[in-house]
Design a protein that fits this description.
Elements (H helix, E strand, L loop, with lengths): L4 E2 L7 H5 L5 E2 L5 H4 L6 E4 L4 E4 L17 E5 L4 E5 L15 H15 L4 H27 L22 H19 L2 H16 L7 H10 L5 H14 L3 H11 L2
Parallel strand pairs: 1-2
Antiparallel strand pairs: 3-4, 5-6
Helix pairs in contact: 3-4, 4-5
Protein name: UDENN domain-containing protein
Organism: Rhizopus stolonifer
Amino acid sequence: FTERAFPYTNLTSVDDLLKCPGFIAGVTNPTYEEHTSWWDVLCNISTGKITVSHHIESNHVIATPTRKQSVSEETSLGVEQAQSPPFHQQQFPAEEKRDSDVEFMNEVMTAIQSHYGETSIRAKFQDYVLRFVRLAALYEEQVYGHTNIGRHSNGVILGCGPVFVDEASKQRELKANANRIEGWRQSISYRYYERDINHWLQNACIKNLDVYRQISKLKKLKHIPDQEVAAIYEAFLNNIVTHRQMIEVSLTLFV
């Protein structure tokens, strides 16, 4: 995002700055804080205060899916089709409480106060963002019938996408992030990610197995049926064979 990043700017550059969509700028003049129409989110690094501009409007889902979409959810031995909720017929208030956001920030603040290293703090944000973009791909499948930013669930062994404790938690997280996802889908960031993820998928050594999902299940879920665990390891055995595939898996472990 170098074309949108301005490490330092001043009032003489405001007009040029506002012509740049999604700019990220460093400023010291308090006038910027007063003009809430100039920015969406303002971070005061001196006080730690983060302000969201009241000019931001909620992005509601307005598109109608081309077909009824069912998203694969794993069972102990196979795949079960779960009817997707009619997100396109719902509106989601922007002020809806997101418990996961609160938990995440509490975790980050605890880590900072405990003097964790930069690498550890950075990894927490990477995990958070990765889950969001994977959630967005799942959302697109449910709402639009396909996704532009991930694997298609019907072509992947044992399913793909983020891991949830149960169906109810999945629906809550999708609902809470619907407006956020719709807003991101209109951004330059989304187009960059769409380009990068599709390039990666085309060149990936492991084509039909979402390794990250399976590892996440083994790490995060407390109760997994023995037969499902066996199915996961069998999928690893059958799809991770070459040296390059093993390297790809090792990189996944450190994401």
